[in-house]
Design brief:
four-stranded mixed beta sheet; mainly beta; 18 strands; single chain
Length: 223
């Protein structure tokens, strides 16, 4: 009996196995037994038998190895790339894996939402045969939020004509850290009127916010 085709034969997991058969040198009919499940990893045996007119029987066997050499397909779940606001909480949406075999999925992230920058989350899937597939999500930590400017003292101040105006200033908070408050506007306490003092703060990303204080110079003193 002569086995046709490869022996041993290799079949990829999930594919279709077509047996190449065998022939007998005397032209006898060759029968086969055994089966191959291409959806299950393993080693299978196909046995070929032939009997001549005198009743002599011989056999031959083919080994069929069902193997998995295909890496898992890893697809990032959700938005990619994704923007995350500075100082917020980042919740990863994970990844979806497709594979014909069992697998494990891990992720490695360097995302730091306290610092503006570009980060990566790498998903790695490894199946039971050791094949590895990866995918990467890009996470951009951005700052689009302006600082919060808070006046020190009242938003409206009254000063007597000829008196002294003491600037109370303002403070600013921002997720990027300390920001400087710039004050603009003047108050002339020798002239009755309403004056505006503006406080501005700009963070490292260029976001700016302002707050204002009204200073009323009044004359309530009799001659």
């Amino acid at each position: 009996i002569t086995i046709l085709g490869d022996n041993p034969a290799t079949v990829e997991l999930g594919s279709t196995y077509t047996d190449a058969g065998a022939t007998s040198d005397g032209g006898e009919t060759v029968s086969s037994s055994g089966s191959v499940d291409p959806n299950t990893l393993g080693t299978y045996t196909i046995t070929y038998s032939a009997t001549d007119a005198a009743g002599n029987t011989s056999t031959a066997t083919r080994t069929v190895n069902v193997v998995d050499t295909t890496a898992p397909v890893v697809v990032v779940n959700g938005v990619n790339p994704i923007d995350v606001e500075l100082g917020s909480n980042y919740t990863d949406s994970g990844a979806i894996v497709t594979d014909l075999d069992t697998f494990t999925l891990t992720s490695d992230s360097d995302v730091d939402t306290s610092v503006v920058g570009t980060y990566s989350v790498v998903y790695t899937a490894t199946d039971a045969s050791g094949n590895v597939g990866t995918a990467t999500r890009t996470v951009n930590v951005v700052d689009t939020t302006a600082p919060v400017v808070t006046l020190t003292g009242a938003a409206t101040v009254t000063v007597e004509l000829g008196g002294t105006y003491t600037e109370l200033g303002a403070t600013a908070t921002d997720a990027s850290g300390t920001v400087t408050v710039v004050t603009s506007g003047t108050v002339d306490t020798d002239t009755v009127g309403s004056y505006t003092v503006t406080y501005s703060a700009t963070d490292a990303a260029g976001n700016t916010s302002t707050a204002t204080r009204t200073v009323n110079v009044v004359d309530t003193t009799a001659p």
